[in-house]
Amino acid sequence: MASKTKKAQFDAKKTLEMIEEQFEMFQILNEEGKVVNEAAMPELSDEQLQELMRRMVYTRILDQRSISLNRQGRLGFYAPTAGQEASQIASHYALEKEDWILPGYRDVPQIVWHGLPLYQAFLFSRGHFQGNQMPEGVNALAPQIIIGAQYIQTAGVALGLKKRGKKAVAITYTGDGGSSQGDFYEGINFAGAYQAPAIFVVQNNQFAISTPRDKQTAGKTIAQKAVAAGIPGILVDGMDPLAVYAAVKDARERAVNGEGPSLIETLCYRYGPHTMAGDDPTRYRSSEQDTEWEKKDPLVRFRTFLEAKGLWNEEKENEVIEQAKEDIKEGIKKADAAPKQKVTDLMANMYEEMPYNLKEQFEIYKEKESK
Ligand SMILES: Cc1ncc(C[n+]2csc(CCOP(=O)(O)OP(=O)(O)O)c2C)c(N)n1
Ligand SMILES: [Mg+2]
């Protein structure tokens, strides 16, 4: 008969429990807009704090307008971003122009703030090839639709930056759902093995379409998955712009100093539906859950914080709102003026050198289009 291992000598669960309890949520600004972690306060000037707020307010308006433009049939694919402004905008705010962004489909705001003109963001939404063509100097790839694929690409881009001796990072974003993909594990593991300057962000907005977070993994956190890859993992309050900024800034500094990649889980929530394609959030989440998360709103808490410092008021906010609306109007006008997409455009922009079989089809379509 096999002997039973004594519990006192061998406790398989202990290591897991010891690791999991280390992952506490990093927060600087609480739901009431009060600083609860003064020691971790990032060094941001008053102007920088105002600019961060300006970008978050602008992005909320961009989201609202994009939703209504979609409903009017004037935009195509759109994944709402409201609720994720701290996670998206404050993480981007910690980057430099030379850093590379590998976004997912919900991460259009980050590439807009990295320099992608609004009209191109709208063209991306319409499936127009010009929406995927980053202007010279805008270091970003087109938003990835294949869940998790950007994690592997980020490991490669980061390794390339390292090999070229650049003082820059590659940052990527996926969701809680994306963290279940094989590509997620391969990406963080490879970047760890080669100490590539990458920042892997998981925006844990609690749902992958209708699948709740607790169906993704038995892990207590997603951040702890970093341990297996041998890289730092950080769990951040993703509704707190200051904490997100500080965590990404720190990860960036370590990465450019040759200390390798980090995994950052931002706890957040999307207020809207998954995309505008027709899912109904009331079928998979309760209004109590919505209300609970709305109380954590990044704009509300940051506004309270800035108002107490005399750095924000209604007038400033309205200025940003008006500016955003005007820019969006201009952007849509410019997107409308883009040449209608042709089948040959799709082929011409896919390959550096077109394969022979496509060349044949290209000629057929060119002929059709000329009529
Ligand atoms: C490889 C792959 N599988 C499935 C899909 C379909 N799909 C699109 S979005 C999505 C959910 C992703 O959820 P999450 O990673 O949490 O990101 P979120 O949309 O919440 O930002 C799925 C399954 C896909 N695009 N790619
Ligand atoms: Mg999600």
TrEMBL record:
Record's function text: The pyruvate dehydrogenase complex catalyzes the overall conversion of pyruvate to acetyl-CoA and CO(2). It contains multiple copies of three enzymatic components: pyruvate dehydrogenase (E1), dihydrolipoamide acetyltransferase (E2) and lipoamide dehydrogenase (E3).
Cofactor(s) essential for the protein: thiamine diphosphate
Lineage, top ranks: Bacteria, Bacillati, Bacillota, Bacilli, Bacillales
Dehydrogenase E1 component domain: residues covered: 53-343
Keywords (A to Z) from UniProt: Oxidoreductase, Pyruvate, Thiamine pyrophosphate
Catalytic activity: N(6)-[(R)-lipoyl]-L-lysyl-[protein] + pyruvate + H(+) = N(6)-[(R)-S(8)-acetyldihydrolipoyl]-L-lysyl-[protein] + CO2
Species assigned in the record: Falsibacillus albus
Domain of life, source organism: Bacteria
Subunit structure comment from the entry: Heterodimer of an alpha and a beta chain.
Protein name: Pyruvate dehydrogenase E1 component subunit alpha
